[in-house]
Specification:
200 residues; alpha/beta; Rossmann fold; four-stranded parallel β-sheet
Length: 200
């Protein structure tokens, strides 16, 4: 199923179709789209003060509102059935003060705090909610939208000073949805090679 997660009706329709096909949803991975402005590319300029307001609105809709819409649509059934696992995908940009991509960082910080609030609200219902915060991670869009450092592309080297692999993010998510993590709630797991090495 595909649709615009910033659109409440589109999310409701996706939820209905998914529940019709699979009966119930026990696991929700909420991976809202990233630093994409109103016209489809990166905002320009893309700092805290000069970013066009239409790009701010687009980023809010894609990241924070989209995350909230999906959670509202799917988690109510988890709450009713007294079981569910939610992993929201944040970013290390939400853990650090930045100038470039500031609004994106602010919104990922909001997703992190929304995760904590959900975890607090839902723990009595047996639903646990956590957040994975990736560092810079290699994927097609990542490589297409910035100048990459060739030395950071090698994931086989011993150093952790490199870009992450998508599989490394997926492994963290797989852990958080497994029974091994069933008593972990309201936490932020940074998967970034130690870029952020202080409590989230």
């Amino acid at each position: 199923m595909t649709g615009n997660i910033g659109d409440v009706q589109a999310v409701a329709e996706m939820c209905t179709k998914i529940e019709e096909k699979f009966s119930k949803v026990d696991i929700l991975i909420n991976c809202a789209r990233g630093d994409i402005g109103a016209c489809g590319g990166k905002p320009s300029p893309n700092n805290a003060l000069d970013i066009p307001i239409e790009d701010v609105e687009a980023l809010i809709n894609h990241n924070l509102i989209g995350t909230i819409n999906v959670c509202k649509a799917f988690i109510q059934a988890m709450r009713d059935q007294k079981y569910g696992v939610v992993v929201n995908i944040g970013s290390v940009a939400g853990q650090l003060g930045v100038s470039e991509r500031a609004i994106y960082g602010i919104l990922k910080a909001s997703v992190t705090h929304y995760t904590r609030c959900l975890a607090t609200e839902l723990k009595q219902h047996g639903v646990h909610v956590n957040c994975v915060a990736p560092g810079p991670t290699k994927n097609a869009r990542f490589e297409a939208t910035r100048v990459v450092d060739p030395e950071m592309m090698d994931s086989q080297k011993a150093s952790l000073v490199r870009y992450g692999e998508p599989s490394e993010i997926a492994n963290a998510v797989a852990f958080l949805v497994s029974d091994q993590a069933k008593f972990i709630n309201g936490q932020v797991l940074c998967v970034d090679g130690g870029l952020v090495n202080f409590p989230s």
